[in-house]
Known about the structure:
Layout: H1 16-43, H2 49-71
Amino acid sequence: MKSRTPQSATSLRRAPRDDAHARMTKYFIMMSVRVVCFVLMVVITPYGWHTGILAVGAVALPYLAVIVANVGSAPDEPDAVPPERQITAATAPPAPANPTVIRISESQAKPPAES
């Protein structure tokens, strides 16, 4: 059964440009964290248990970044409502029952009399 609610701008999906920007931002942040993990893994000495955690972060974050970036928008976002014609054509106004016609006739003015 089709919905008879009118199209609303708030029911539209996110613009593809905005969606791509949000996904690229998520990917960039996660890859920046990966670079930080890699640099800290190499720089921090003596090596210990924290080196292993940083190595796992440097190895696993690219995979997670791709998955998170490809998820896209939230799944609870409503689908767009298909636009339907909501305005009907106006009907012609009804003709008056007894049309009234007013006629005005003008007479030619006489020139003023000369004395």
